[in-house]
Write a structure and sequence with these properties.
Rossmann fold; 2 domains; 13-stranded mixed beta sheet; alpha/beta
């Protein structure tokens, strides 16, 4: 989401319970209008009043019902890997938020990285860097991006990244991710809450995945979801750190190597508190934590301030996420070292999803 709108929506949501009645009424009115628009838009496409285009190969969408923070990018990577292991040629289509280029951009042809931030968005770049053998294309018009991928790569299947609200393109399977700790946020639509659409829109999905699921802590959320949507395939996913890389140099260590280190963290994410919680679980000795807006384009001044603050906090290094590292373009020239924590999604019952794909596609 655009950082401006993210900050506006977050401010309204946080103010909702404590703000004067006039502001709460404004937020409620805006949410009602937003909900009417979201329902109307989905209905117009469903009825064929607005055209829906089809690509030459099956399309699987991985999307959200809420704004950001459900682990969509690592789940997309997990599915792409499993499909590749099943000998499927995969092309990923992303809107490419943050991309400076207009039109369709080919980030990867399956063999080479052809572009990097800031020319292209960090999420698409992270997918291209993480998934050798998969082609990655970006473009606001995902049909045009898909046709370019079809001409140049001939995929067996398209993965549509963040596609649940991209009605212009026909999908053969809709997968929607919900955060296990708070599947529907406060249950309210933007800008009063995090919902992009009413919960009833989940009727259009075939698969629901509870992400960041922890057995015991989230069993109730899983049972509630199964009760509310008995006809859906409902799975769980864990998103866990897998490697820590130290720059300059790129030395790779297990995440446990961070235990006890005095590190200053920064991240530009929809939910930076998730990163902070992960570092706490790894027993990192945090000297400081800077949260930037989602999709922050880090300036030279930002980085200089981070290094200066970390030095003043007597941190031995900085630490950030793999997505933020992608936003930095994979380069680090500062005197203070930087650790990059990479995460990976794991879907224990992914075989059920692959079986469903075989039946649907």
């Amino acid at each position: 989401m655009n950082p401006y709108w993210h900050n506006l929506f977050t401010g309204l949501q946080e103010a909702d319970g404590a703000a004067p009645g006039a502001l709460r009424a404004l937020a409620a009115g805006l949410a009602a209008l937003y909900g009417l628009g979201a329902r109307t838009r989905r209905e117009l496409y469903a009825r064929g009043i607005f055209p829906v285009r089809r690509l030459p190969a099956p399309v699987v969408s991985v999307g959200n019902l809420t704004v950001g923070g459900t682990g969509k990018t690592p789940v997309t990577a997990c599915l792409a890997r499993r499909l590749q292991e099943a000998s499927r040629r995969v092309a990923i289509l992303s809107r490419g938020y943050g991309c400076q280029r207009r039109g369709v951009t080919r980030l990867s042809d399956g063999q080479r990285l052809l572009a990097r931030p800031p020319a292209v968005g960090e999420e698409a770049y992270w997918l291209a860097r993480t998934l050798p053998g998969a082609a990655v294309y970006t473009g606001a018009a995902r049909f045009e991006a898909g046709m370019a991928a079809w001409r140049e790569f001939q995929p067996d299947l398209f993965l549509l990244d963040d596609g649940f609200q991209h009605f212009q393109l026909h999908r053969d399977l809709d997968i929607v991710l919900l955060d296990a700790a708070s599947p529907f946020g406060n249950g309210r639509l933007l800008p009063r809450g995090p919902l992009r659409e009413p919960v009833a829109a989940l009727a259009a999905a075939q698969v629901l995945i509870l992400t960041r699921f922890q057995a015991g802590a989230h069993d109730g959320a899983l049972a509630d979801l199964k009760s509310a949507f008995p006809e859906k395939t409902i799975l769980t996913a864990d998103i866990a750190p897998v490697t820590a890389r130290r720059y300059p140099g790129g030395e790779t260590r297990p995440p446990e190597a961070l235990k006890g280190r005095a590190l200053s963290a920064f991240a530009g994410l929809a939910r930076p508190q998730v990163f902070a919680r992960t570092l706490a679980e790894l027993e990192v000795r945090l000297t400081g934590f800077r949260a930037f807006p989602d999709h922050q384009a880090f300036s030279r001044q930002d980085l200089q301030e981070l290094v200066r603050e970390a030095g003043a906090q007597q941190a031995e290094a900085l630490i950030t996420t793999g997505k933020d590292w992608a936003r930095l373009g994979g380069e680090w020239q500062a005197d203070l070292p930087l650790w990059v924590l990479e995460v990976e999604a794991r879907i224990p019952q992914v075989h059920r999803l692959l079986e469903l794909l075989d039946r649907k596609i």
